Amino acid sequence: MAEAHILTGSPAGETLVRFVRDRLPEGPYTRIVVKPNWVRHETDPRFPIRALVTDTRLIDAVLQACLAKYPGARSITVGDAPLQTCDWKRLSAQTGLDAMAIRYASVAGPAVRFLDLRRERAVERQGFMRVSADQPGDPAGYREVALDAASHLEPVSADAARFRVSDYDPGEMVSRHGPGRHRYLISASVLDADLVVNLPKMKTHQKAGITGALKNLVGINGDKACLVHHRKGVDEFGPCSTRLVRLQCRVRDALQKRSPRLFAGGRAAWSGIKALARVHTAATREVLTSGRVYVASGSWYGNDTIWRMIYDLNRAARYAPAGGGLLAATPQRDYVAIMDGICAGEGNGPLDPLPVDLGIVTVSDDPFLMDMAAARLMGFDRDRIPQLANCALFQDERWARFDPRTVSVILDGKRLRGLDALPVLRRFLPTPGWQGRIELASP
Fold first, then answer.
1. What are phi and psi of 228, to 5 degrees?
2. What whole-number distance in Å separates Cα of residue 83 and Cα of residue 185?
3. For every residue of 94-118, which 3-state class applies, written as one string?
């Protein structure tokens, strides 16, 4: 039976380790994967690293809990596939991950390793992307997982030629997705695991409304060109996307990764136009509610594409065999999610979130329940967020098989009946393309 456990009061130290350990699944697990949110290094102090990625203290507590609960484990892999422009060394230094990796290297017991799961990375110079070939990626490699006709993208695959993700060649995406063919390239370390411990960050998200347990599993895929985010000309732009922004997107798409000189010229021209038109890309709470914020590439409430890709990756995490290929009929590995809401993120997430010191940690073995609980705590309506509202379409024997009105939620040890019994801890500011669409009505 699905349950969610929420602990408030900024838990830390042994209190946090015990809370996590007591809620990890029982089992003789030998290969464990811990999947944090390491989307990007901090690039602007207005959007600090503590609001951007999974708190390293939570990762440490989870590792301690796993080492204590699973003495027979042979390996614990902590890994994610950040944005291609993420500077891994800076991320490691900013979070304290580098020091923690050194400490765990000397711990007796199973090998604990920390991996950047990207197959490739890119160096960004003045917005122009140059792909680097020196990215080691998953040392175990990658395996193609085929959802094909079972993909949640299949009902819209007549638009496959319009499938897009920003800064990637559409031709690569078309090679992965089309009618009856939907393929992902999944980290072999993830597929080899018998337990996945998902550590999402509690944040708003431009394209998905919120990012939580469901969205976080997108990072098990090593090739970003597989990840369909929107459909060009279908749900690419919303009503708050101006003609100027639409034109800039078309020009940028034409120049990105093609001509550094032309791109630099176009970037300079756009900077001047943006200043004159008072268009902002990311800024303070006041600017984000001004109505003059850059909104494009599916970053709005009408995005009917990204939730389908999110569902595909969650099904792959549960049902893909260790060797890849077609999904199995039964789950291939166990799962638990532990959400970091110690410092959450609001506003223009997931890359430019404003910090919200919420001080909570949530544990559940059902990502739908976890994310619906998070939406409630953030002051959002679960029925207006597509990745939650479409839960009945997700094909799983256990996940999303609960009634939100009666499901058990345990808040600081007190059992509540139904998600609506949870308090709204703070009314989070949605990303600009979602403002006025997902907020709960005032009590």
1. -75, 120
2. 16
3. HHCHHHHHHHHHCCCCCEEEEEECC
Phi-psi region of 298 (alpha: psi -120 to 50; beta: other; left: phi over 0): left
Residue 289 lies in a domain: no
- Give the integer Cα–Cα distance in Å for 397 and 11: 33
The pTM is what?
A: 0.94
Cα(74)–Cα(72) distance, integer angstroms = 6
CB atoms under 10 Å from CB of 146, counted, come to 17
What is the C-alpha separation between 133 and 117, in angstroms, rounded?
Answer: 14
The span from the CA of 92 to the CA of 88, in Å, is: 6
- Give the number of other Cβ atoms within 10 Å of residue 404's Cβ: 19
3-state secondary structure labels for all residues of 387-436: HHHCHHHCCCCCCCCCCCCCCEEEECCEEEECHHHCCCCCCCCCCHHHCC
Q: Is residue 262 assigned to a domain?
A: no
- The 10s digit of each residue's pLDDT in 112-133 is 999 999 998 876 655 555 666 5
Q: What does the pLDDT look like over 401-433, one tens digit per residue?
A: 999 999 999 999 999 999 999 999 999 999 999
Total domain count, the chain: 1
Assigned domain for 407 exists: yes
CATH number for the domain that contains residue 340: 3.40.50
Strand partners, 278: none
d(CA 111, CA 75): 5
Q: Tokens standing for 230?
A: 């929107």
- Count other Cβ atoms within 10 Å, centred on residue 127: 17
Q: Which regions in the chain score pLDDT beneath 50?
A: none
For residue 104, being part of any structural domain is answered with: yes
Overall size of the chain counted in residues = 443
Say how far apart CA 151 and CA 393 lie, in whole Å.
11
Distances (CA, A) of 240 to 298, 305, 322: 11, 18, 44
Contact (Cβ atoms closer than 8 angstroms) between residue 199 and residue 36: yes
Residue numbers of the domain that contains 375: 3-117+182-227+306-434
